Amino acid sequence: MATVPELSYAFQPMLSTRTGRLLALEALARPGTGTIHDVLRDAARAGQLVEVDIELAAGAIRAATSAEVPLHVNVLAVTITRSDELLRMLLPALRATGRRQADVTVEVTPPFGGLHRSALLDGLNLLREQGFRIAFDGAGDGDLPLSIIADVVPDMVKLDAYLLHGVPGNPAVVALIEALGHLAGRTGIRLAAVGVEFEDQLALLSKLGVPVAQGNLMASAQVGMPTYVAPEITRLDGVPVGPGGPLVADLIHPAVTMSEATTSEQVRQVFVESPEVTSVVLVDSGKRPRWSLDRSRFLLAVTGPYGHALHASKPAARHADPPRTIRADASSIELLEAVGETEGARAGDDVVVVDGVGRCVGIVRLTEVMRGVAEAKVEQAVALNPLTRLPGTGVVTREIDRRIERGDMFVVSWLDVDAFKQVNDTKGFAAGDDLIRAIGRALSDLAARLPGTRVAHVGGDDFLVVTDVDEAGTLAAEVVDRPWTVDDSTVSVSLASLVCAVGSVGSYREASRLLAPLKSRAKQVGRSSWVLGRPKSDRIDVLRGRVMSAPA
Questions:
Q1: DSSP 160-218
Q2: How are beta strands 133-139 and 410-417 bridged, if at all?
Q3: Which domains does the chain have, with CATH numbers?
Q4: Over the stretch 337-368, which tens digit does the pLDDT of each residue have?
Q5: 453, 391 in Cβ contact below 8 A?
Q6: Cα–Cα distance between 418 and 422 in angstroms, integer?
Q7: pTM of the model as a whole
């Protein structure tokens, strides 16, 4: 067995460029000293390159103890030529962690030069026969032959990080990625971009048809298997969309349902006689959807030359796809997340709506869902403060009322800048605007990190923040403990927090009334301050700042 130095594994997320959903994790070996390239170079000098590479791949699987997220494991191309030895290590590691081969993608990494083509293809075929998925890494800045991509048709091709340096400014690089996107669309290969650093890169990749991205913009690699929690706010094109947008039930259309034993001729008649019908759902005796027939694809199959003679009397299910389903009480955002990764011919198919026991109750058309989400985004964008791009009080009003109705304990805080008028009078309005924008960015970043935090810009220098109880301290550390300056002059802020136990306040209006004296108290404390109070209590705790002495 090869000698492998002591190392750990980090796991970098691979995210959807369309919905931000976590798709997979790539295992990255991290030696105690040096880099993984140093480890492989030393192994090559010792004549143990393949043996060490196999140990690293097996170690990555063993380190990924959670099997909930698909895993990508890096393997050198030369190691693929000895896939029988690779499998002898990978399969026991999979059994030990309870992971299936279908949930593991073997990323084949350069160099490819000097390898026997037949040996490489045989190795890849063996891995596929065992159920593994295949990806090619380093496309665009390595020696990966395009002919190998055509011969193998891997599940994924990853664009090298060097290419991303030319996005979006280099038209030639953009054209190259667009061409690879056409290749992927014709073959079913998924493209992934490595090394995404900036938001304009991510936006362009999505437009160019690159569905998967990883890099520092999304998340840094973390040692150990991280836990991912779906955010309550999903961001599409940079504009926050609230926890739903329109419900699926608001966009539902009647479904045309037929028995799963229906013939192609019977379905053809429905489509011909009813041009407005976009799909037919084939159901079982319990009205549960079994198959879905898209109008365009079905008619193309059965009305071509000899199509009627070949298919008319045969079951229509021969031309059907498994139905994509969604609950009627789901939000449109949940629907887009559920089908957002669908590519190719089915990307725009109708989605079958089901009730609580799985019976078909209608369909939704994705074009209408996207239009509904877009309208919700426009409504929210109108309400954003033009200076900070934060929503107004409405978002906090709804959040407080929602938490009161649910019986949650929470904290509502009021933040403002001390002597802000003086800042404008002495430093100018532009400097004051810069300060407000900086505070707004800090609060936006905080809300992105903390799942229970909602932020609103009331106007001027006033902000409202709703947090879970255990997040209030983080809020104070972020805005009170941070030094704020305007043209090298220090500026202080005041934070007043009201801890609302279950049943202690009855509405947003009552909470805002109780906050007012706390804000006044915070203003009386020297330096940047944080005071905390509770409904029905006269006690006010000064947690930050210097208590001023009363005048003699």
A1: -HHHHTTTTT-HHHHHHHHHHHHHHHHHTPEEEEE---SHHHHHHHHHTT--EEESTTT
A2: unpaired
A3: 7-229 (3.20.20.450), 248-372 (3.10.580.10), 384-546 (3.30.70.270)
A4: 666 655 555 667 888 988 877 889 888 887 66
A5: no
A6: 9
A7: 0.47
